[in-house]
Design brief:
By secondary structure, the chain is of the alpha/beta class. The protein is built from 15 helices and 8 strands. The protein has helices spanning 35-45, 49-53, 69-81, 87-96, 98-104, 111-120, 122-138, 166-189, 193-233, 296-307, 323-331, 358-366, 370-376, 383-391, 402-428, and strands at 146-155, 163-165, 246-248, 255-258, 264-275, 281-287, 313-316, 335-337. Helix 7 runs parallel beside helix 15 (402-428). The termini are far apart.
Length: 429
């Protein structure tokens, strides 16, 4: 009771413990121009045939009805725009927040279904990206002639302490295999039902640990082979990095990378391809390579695979100055605008080195001109998607493995493109 209230007053006061029934129309909860309505309209315009083909519940058959994939897609797209990246948090919002309740439309969801759909929809999102950008290219909104390539390093779902050297991984895997064999023998000998379930659970855990250790060992081997390959390309007698190769027992695909703050953490290097004309993301790939070198050719190949055409120029920062890539793109008549090492963002006189090919020499000549740097500086447009994604919670992945990481990244890509496509269409009209 508030201070100053004297006895005998007849007033209406709050009764929050009283149960009451309310009649609510979900459509009245949101304004006509609410973002959730725009998200739903966008999802309805998408071709979700592949998602509907996975639904097994049909009329006249037994079983529970499936949740409409359009609802799940709209929920995740809207959640990504709002900076929500947790399936459990999204589950709670679906019962407490008007926008999410409106998108659900009375259909109940749970966090497990939401989490599974977020990853399972990855391939569909990848196809939608290609189809939507192809349609915009035909409408003249997307150019695809000038491509901007940049990497975004995102921390993985693993700790530094999960990395082990190859020798230690071999020992740990041997112990894990012995544990699996021991548990299997005990499982065969123990007839007790309760004890049997406990032993089965322990066996599954031991087998999973053995698989992760084997995968970590393969990752360490792959890192060592990559170092040897780089040393051979650079004509070194031995790899520059002589530290023992290590693999993560938590996520075999993750690698230790130098982050923006100068520290080293387990991370993935997300390669984003942005169209210079529209500023839209037209390609994305998840990699676990710490260096951006050797990523230009795969970027062009991805654009050709998606849209059946190649860009005439590629803009990239100084980390993409791999001579092999520059030479190969030169043979494909693609100009590379990338700073020469040591230029500090300014034109420097061309100084070809002995043994360099025609493509690298042409690149040095090109970047010695002020006009080329004027073109190069336009690549700052590709920093906008990075800021957009960071501001919506893309600081660390909550999933493991390249396939799942790419699926999550595609949600952020579609969220960014969604916010840019509408004003672009209005401007084009």
């Amino acid at each position: 009771m508030a201070k100053g209230r004297r006895p005998g007053l007849r007033i209406l006061t709050a009764e929050r413990g009283q149960e009451r029934f309310e009649q609510v129309c979900l459509d009245d909860l949101l304004s006509d121009d609410h973002r959730a309505r725009e998200v739903w309209a966008y999802v309805e315009s998408c071709d979700l045939t592949r998602l509907y083909d996975k639904v097994r519940a049909v009329e006249g058959d037994v079983g529970r009805a499936a949740i409409d994939p359009a609802i799940l897609m709209a929920l995740w797209l809207y959640a990504t725009l709002e900076g929500v990246g947790s399936a459990r948090q999204l589950d709670r919002l679906c019962t407490s927040t008007h926008a999410y309740r409106w998108l659900c439309g009375g259909v109940g969801v749970n966090y497990h279904t939401l989490a599974d759909f977020r990853i399972a929809a990855g391939e569909v999102l990848d196809e939608l990206l290609t189809r939507s950008m192809t349609a915009l290219a035909e409408a003249g909104i997307v150019g695809l002639d000038s491509l901007m390539v940049d990497g975004l390093r995102v921390r993985g779902h693993a700790g530094l302490s999960s990395f082990r050297g190859r020798r230690r991984l071999i020992e740990m895997e041997k112990l894990a295999r012995e544990k699996v064999a021991s548990l299997r023998a005990e499982l065969d000998a123990d007839p007790g039902a309760c004890s049997l379930r406990r032993k089965e659970r322990q066996l599954r855990e031991a087998e999973d640990r053995a698989r992760r250790l084997a995968a970590a060992q393969e990752a360490a081997q792959a890192i060592e082979e990559e170092r040897l390959r780089e040393a051979e390309e650079q004509r070194r007698s031995a790899p520059k990095n002589k530290a023992e190769t290590r693999g993560s027992t938590t996520d075999a695909d993750v690698r230790k990378m130098k982050m923006a703050d100068g520290g080293y953490r387990p991370a993935y290097n997300m390669q984003l391809k942005t169209d210079q004309k529209s500023g839209l993301i037209v390609g994305v790939e998840a990699t676990n390579k710490a260096s951006d070198r050797s990523q230009l050719v795969p970027a062009v190949q991805e654009i050709e695979r998606r849209y059946g055409r190649k860009p005439s120029r590629v803009l990239a920062d100084g980390g993409y100055d791999g001579k092999a890539d520059i030479e190969e793109l030169y043979q494909q008549e693609i100009e590379v605008f990338c700073p020469v090492p040591g230029s500090e963002g300014k034109p420097v006189p061309a100084a070809p080195k002995p043994g360099e090919g025609a493509g690298v020499r042409a690149w040095r000549e090109r970047m010695s001109l002020e006009g080329s740097y004027t073109i190069y500086r336009q690549r700052m447009i590709c920093e906008h998607p990075h800021a957009h994604m960071r501001n919506r919670g893309l600081q660390q992945f909550a999933v493991r493995g390249l396939r799942k990481v790419k699926a999550v990244m595609l949600w952020y890509v579609h969220a960014f493109n969604f916010e840019r496509i509408r004003p672009l269409r209005v401007a084009a009209a």
